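hi! just following up on the protien thing from before. the input was this:
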Amino acid sequence: MATLRALLAPTGWLDRTRAFARGLRKATRTPGGLLLVGTPAEEPWHLTAHLDEESRLSGIAELTPTLVRWAVPESAPPHLRVGLERLEAAQRGETVFVVTSATAPVPLLERVSDARREGATIFALDQGDPELDALAHEAMTIAPGPGTPGTLSFGLAQHLISTACGELGGDGQAWVPGAAGQPGMPGYQRYRPGVRGLRDRVARLLDVVSGPNP
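and the predicted 3d structure came back as:
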């Protein structure tokens, strides 16, 4: 835990990922409406799996992700047989979440642009893609580079986002036991120190990524 605080407390990453997750929770209003898509070479399996787990643990149906695939194998089970035509059907109240460490190809940008015109909310997690970020209502860029204090890996960023999503209630607000009036409380971009769930759980994730503290 001490290592986690030393690395992340001065950087604001916990606050940023919580704000990003809150936006995801508020934008997605229907079960099955959180559409995750990557590139033909890199599908966001990692984040999809974590969001699915957080959805089950938190009991938030709207958080259940739909993985949109560029090529669907005939042997794939039903929940993994969602093709690009799902992006064409995206509408208001749904979210297209583009997750890629590579530059988004033109066919993806075109589909994202079409989904935005139909009213879907666009989120992007990338490593620096100006064209994709310009289409997104909210974007988080994880700068590539060696692991240094203040720098997140792309994989750890996905852990942080999915964990923060599961911590939030159905209205996108962090739940504080015993506190009154959570749904209307201000502070969209502000960390609320009474909430410890994310930090505690990320500490365990850090142990997995870098090994436990001696």
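The beta strands are 34-37, 65-68, 95-99, 121-126, 138-141.
DSSP finds eight helices and five strands in the chain.
cheers
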